[in-house]
Amino acid sequence: MKKILIPFCAVAALTLASTGCKHPETGAFTPQSATQFDTENKEKFVLMDPGAQYSVTCSGLQETRLPDGRLKVVANVRNRENRRIEVQINCVFKDEQGFSTGDETPWQKLVLTENGQESVQVESANDKAKKYTIRVRQAR
Prior knowledge:
Elements: H1 2-19, H2 39-42, E1 45-47, H3 50-55, E2 56-65, E3 71-79, E4 85-94, E5 100-104, E6 108-112, E7 117-123, E8 131-138
């Protein structure tokens, strides 16, 4: 047994020594799939998980400027199922380039009856908001 073990260890040691330690490349890398998962950057209404994607739709968005320059958005959120569901909804207000202004509404619970529709109204806190994204997810 010892006669087999010694040559085996020698072969293993030579193999490790000859391959050396391979280090991954270093330096800067470009982002992977930078445009594949950026729906929140493009759309005004997004569904954040598969459950919401299956159950909820938006039948209309209405944007209004208030007299003080703030942005007011009303979304008609519809339940696509024949059962009562609970979701959470919030809005991120953005500047003209699509960056958040730091103005984000808290997540609020929305109960949708069977095949029902509810209007949800949100207002920005300041006049910097030019764009927005309304986000919906399943209630936790």
